[in-house]
Amino acid sequence: MELDISEVSKVYRGGKRALGGVTLRLGPGVLGLLGPNGAGKSSLMRIIATITRPSDGTVRWDGEDVVARPDRLRRVLGYLPQEFGVYPNLTAAEFLSYLAAVKGLSAQSARARIDELLELVNLTDVGKRPLGKFSGGMRQRVGIAQALLNDPELLIVDEPTAGLDPEERVRFRNLLGDLAAHRVVILSTHIVSDVEATADDIAIMAQGRLLRRGTPEHLLGMVDGYVWETMIPSAELIEFRERHVVSRAVRTPDGIRVRVLAPEPPTIDAVNVPPDLEDAYLNVVRGVNQATAARAEFTREAP
Ligand SMILES: Nc1ncnc2c1ncn2[C@@H]1O[C@H](COP(=O)(O)OP(=O)(O)OP(=O)(O)O)[C@@H](O)[C@H]1O
After folding, report:
1. Which intervals hold domain ABC transporter (predicted)?
2. Which atom of ligand 1 lies closest to the CA of 158?
3. Interval between CA 40 and ligand 1 midpoint (Å)
4. Check: complex ipTM more than 0.85
5. What spacing in Å lies between the alpha carbon of 42 and ligand 1's midpoint?
6. What is the pLDDT of residues 60-90, one digit of tens each?
7. Which contiguous run of DSSP H or E holds residue 256?
C-alpha cells in the first residue's frame, strides 16, 4: 500500500492555480494534512480520489498511474468529501445499502457490513430513522460509514469533524486511529486538534504548496524555545498583536494571557513555555504571507 504523489499541479478553468507542484509519498498510518482554507487540500483530495484530474504531475497507487487507470484505486478507496449529501427520505440503512450496490457489493455481504458499520459509528439505534431527521454530526457519521463500506485500503476524509460536537469529535478521532493500522488514511483539516490526537505524520500546506512534513515531535522541535507566555492589559491587545505573532490570547480576571512566537522574550516577565502543535502550525503558515526576514519561520533545523 503506497500512494505516491509527484509534482501535482492544478489550475482550474479561469486560471485559478490551486496546487503548484505537490510531492508526497505515503504508506499505512494517518497523514494529517493541515492547511488554512483555500490551501488546496480539497483539490488534492479530489485528485487522489480520481474525481478531478491534475493539470500536471502524477499520482500512483502501488506503482500504477491512477489518472490513466483509475479503476484499481477506486476499488480500494473510501472517500468522505467535504460536502457530503444524503437523501433525506432514506434511512441510514437504506442509504448505505444503496451506496453498497453502487459500489458493487453483493446484497448479502452488504447487509452484514452495514450492521457492523452502523455499530462502529454508533448509529445502530437510529438506523431506521430518515436521514432528514439526523443532526449534522449523525449525518457525518453516516458519511464515515459509507466511506468504509468496501473496507478501503486508502481512506480519505476531508474536513470530517465540521459540524461534530466535542464528544463526537473525540469519538471520531479514536475511530480514525483504530482504522489506520492496516490502511493509508489521509485526514485533511484546518483544525490542529483534529490531527494532534490521531496523526503521527503531518503535512502542512498553504497556497497550493506543501510547506512542511514531519512527525509532531519534529514540528514541535522547530519552535522549541520560541514560545512565550505573558500577561498584558486588555486594552493593549490590538497593539500587541501588531507587534508580535500571537498564537493565543486568553482573558483572565487579571488581564489577557498571550502566547507569543518570538526569538526573544516579548516582555520582561515573559516565561518560556513548551510549544504545542498550534504554535508549530502557526509558525509554518504565517511565514507564507510575510516577506520580511524578521517574520520568517523559525527553525532549529539545519537549513
Ligand atoms: N472548481 C473550482 N474552480 C475554480 N477554483 C476552485 C475550484 N475549486 C477550488 N478552487 C479554488 O482553489 C483554491 C484551493 O481550494 P481548495 O478547496 O482545494 O482548498 P482547501 O484547502 O480545501 O480549502 P477549503 O477548506 O476552504 O475548501 C481556492 O482558492 C479555491 O477557491
Report:
1. 3-232
2. 22
3. 6
4. yes
5. 7
6. 999 999 999 999 999 999 999 988 888 899 9
7. strand 255-261
